[in-house]
Design a protein that fits this description.
Blueprint (H helix, E strand, L loop, with lengths): L10 E4 L6 E4 L4 H13 L2 H15 L11 H16 L2 E7 L7 E7 L4 E3 L7 E3 L4 E5 L4 H7 L6 H10 L1 E6 L2 E4 L5 H9 L3 H12 L3 E9 L6 E7 L6
Antiparallel strand pairs: 1-2, 3-4, 5-10, 6-7, 7-8, 8-9, 10-11
């Protein structure tokens, strides 16, 4: 006689970049095993692939994990993780007054959200008539570019892949109708002032972010620590 499959509780969340409501379930023991094996390998690529696999399984294949912006991927996984192994995580952060003393804190993962800067926009005006419409980098783009220590070419590659449209007056050039080389050449011919606008897009793009209040046990001084990015919550 076959053993029964136990029905798993499902939850809902809103995808930050699209406001779409999706259903998800906690990850199973076999899926956690995949994640632990990826973490043991120490390879970022293995960890990202494990996270993508878990998200795909736990959202019932309803979203395209390969095209998700990195912050969507992080937010969805954080929610899946919180419903799988607990909503509270214990971390250690550096006290802001001396940037040295490690302070233990507890973070409620259900209260961690994607933060969007008030002056962020995906439409970048280069001149009165010309500009760009941008999309967000995926986790694979970050991984391929080695953004912990990227070369100039790697950064240009990420930027060019995130250009959704280039417009000049009434002319509109979609990403599908242009090559990576053409978009890179376009970027290289921008002025420094125009390129800074592109950098501002990436600097202010949505990110997983949470603030915690801490008290330095040595100095008794209170402060606020900002935790950013998925890795910071584990």
């Amino acid at each position: 006689m076959a053993l029964p499959n136990i029905n798993q509780q499902t939850f809902e969340l809103e995808v930050p970049s699209t406001d779409e409501i999706i259903k998800y379930r906690p990850f199973l023991v076999k899926e956690e095993k995949v994640l632990l094996q990826a973490q043991e390998s120490g390879k970022t690529k293995d960890q990202i692939e494990a996270i993508k696999t878990i998200i795909d399984n736990c959202t019932f294949g309803k979203i395209d994990v390969d095209t998700l912006p990195s912050f969507d991927l992080e937010y969805i996984f954080l929610n899946i993780r919180s419903k799988s192994v607990g909503e509270t995580v214990k971390l250690k952060v550096r006290a802001p007054d001396d940037n040295e003393t490690m302070v233990p804190v507890e973070v409620d993962l259900s209260k961690v959200n994607v933060h969007v800067d008030v002056d962020h926009t995906n439409k970048i005006e280069l001149t009165k008539d010309a500009g760009l419409v941008m999309t967000y980098p995926t986790m694979d783009m970050f991984m391929d570019a080695n953004l912990s220590n990227p070369s100039t070419d790697e950064m240009l590659d990420v930027i060019s892949k995130c250009i959704l449209q280039i417009y000049n007056g009434e002319e509109v050039f979609d990403k599908a109708s242009t090559s990576d080389k053409d978009r890179k050449d376009f970027i290289e011919n921008l002025t420094q002032e125009q390129f800074l606008k592109l950098q501002h897009f990436f600097k202010t793009m949505p990110k997983l972010k949470h603030e915690v209040k801490v008290t330095n046990p040595k100095t008794k001084k209170k402060g606020t620590v900002v935790i950013e990015g998925l890795q910071s919550f584990f």
